Amino acid sequence: MTTAAAGSPRTYQVRTYGCQMNVHDSERISGLLEQAGYVRAAEADEQPDVVVFNTCAVRENADNRLYGNLGHLRPVKDKHPGMQIAVGGCLAQKDRGDIVRKAPWVDVVFGTHNIGSLPVLLERARHNTAAEVEILESLDVFPSTLPTRRESTYAGWVSISVGCNNTCTFCIVPSLRGKEKDRRPGDILSEVRALVDEGVLEVTLLGQNVNSYGVEFGDRYAFGKLLRACGDIEGLERVRFTSPHPKDFTDDVIAAMAETPNVCHSLHMPLQSGSDEVLRAMRRSYRSEKYLGIIEKVRAAMPDAAITTDIIVGFPGETDADFEKTLDVVREARFSSAFTFQYSKRPGTPAATMDGQLPKQVVQERYERLIATVEEITWAENRKLVGETVEVLVAVGEGRKDERTGRLSGRARDGRLVHFDAGSLAGQIRPGDIVHTTVTYAAPHHLNADGEPLSHRRTRAGDAAEAGRAPRTPGVLLGLPTIGAPAAVPAPTGGCAAR
Q: What local confidence, expressed as pLDDT, does residue 73 receive?
């Protein structure tokens, strides 16, 4: 017995935790399932036929979050025979068969290296009425060759590499994602062109360490070349990338950013700590002077550049003096935003067994001081933009208060979040359209523009959003089964069918 009505396709829902890599992997999971015959469940549907958890293992509470959600689903599944639950992503790669041992109502566990196996595993588990656990130790098929159901009509993720060759002592990612594996430039650019052909205006190049791209085929200038090649793609208006590593950041990449008109002057470059002693313990192969030197070069080439970062507070052995050095770097770097984290012990990482693990209250106090310092700086930097005109790519879901305030939201070219009043253009501006507007107010995390927009440009991305059409990039499904009712056979025609 299945939860889907006889003859109707099975429905699915993907729940995503973690980084941009996971978000993009979830787009691939959706593409795979839809190509295999599943249909996305409505958001309000509390009992889809298949629920897929795409998990993260970076933070300490990842395990609790997953098992808590699995526990909530157990009674739902008990009431709906045929419902299936799958767990993939980094936590699945780490915990493997332990997931089924702890939550025996899970049907499928798959890892970061074999996303493409999910439809087969679901069908096998359904046929055998037994859990299927398949974890590969290395990449089977480069994920970008898989079909993808894009979530946005105007912006798309494009993976240029997977895995990481670094050995940061706090990070579990290399053991879960494997060594860096680079895509060929031609394959990347073909995917970018395919997205642009469907109306996408902005792409973000993704990698655990994007600026080491080319290490696999021995070209240390490959990333700069890739940025410049993106500049030759007609219709591509914005190019971003995340995340680079300071040790691999070259002057050539800075030049490529400055010289290529569609590469946005925004840079997310993780700092992690401003203390050289802590950076050494983290096995981060740069020091604060080099980090600040990169920022100085970026701002010399692009004075308008917005620089964001990641910072960890409370790493084992961090002293008050070490923490003060982090605050000093934050003040000098003048970040436009920062993702701040309290150190989280992850079993299997060298840092988990280091001496000097700090008490929670010490870490919390430093964390609060860091946030206060960051917000003081980001607010001051944002206030400099009051009265300036910004180009906004209109987005969906960026402004949680938009419905109440009557504003729309989007991202400026430098990545800042802008909430704006549509004025007399209300009802005409669509997600994916481009608006120019003047900043009237600044907060630490966003800008407001409450005057009449200066201009509005309708785009193909906006057309797609209005039509409810999401970009899909095809892949090759090698023998994967389809689910649900077979596609209808088209009626014969006297000539070529219209397409």
A: 92
Handedness of CA 204, 209, 211, 212 (dihedral sign): negative
The pLDDT-based confidence of 203 (bands split at 50, 70, 90) is very high
Q: What pTM, to 2 d.p., does this model score?
A: 0.77
User: Which range (277-286, 303-312, 362-371, 486-495) has the least confidence?
Assistant: 486-495
C-alpha span between 402 and 419 (Å, rounded): 8
Residue 239 has pLDDT above 90, yes or no: yes
Q: Which residue has the higher pLDDT, 126 or 238?
A: 238
Residue 403 neighbours by CB distance under 10 Å: 8
Counting Cβ atoms within 10 Å, is residue 495 exposed (0-12), middle (13-18) or buried (19+)? Answer: exposed
Q: For residue 50, what are the CA distances in angstroms to 24, 69, 149, 259, 333?
A: 19, 14, 17, 47, 46
Whether residue 409 contacts residue 395, with contact meaning beta carbons closer than 8 Å, is answered with: yes
Structure tokens of 356? 């000097």
Sheet of 447-449, strands arranged across? 441-442, 447-449, 417-421, 407-412, 389-394, 434-438, 455-457
- Give percent above pLDDT 90 in the chain: 57
356: left (phi over 0), alpha (psi -120 to 50) or beta: left
Buried b (16+ CB within 10 A) or exposed e, 136-171: eeebebbbbbbbbbbbbbbbbbbbbbbbbbbebbbb
In contact, 199 and 459? CB cutoff 8 Å: yes
Closest residue by Cα to residue 241 from 56, 21, 474: 21
At residue 173, the pLDDT reads 73
Residue 53 buriedness (CB in 10 A; 0-12 / 13-18 / 19+): buried
Higher pLDDT, 26 or 443: 443
pLDDT of 294-337, one tens digit each? Answer: 999 999 999 999 999 999 999 999 999 999 999 999 999 999 99
User: Interior CA angle at 246 toward 240 and 247, to 5°?
Assistant: 130
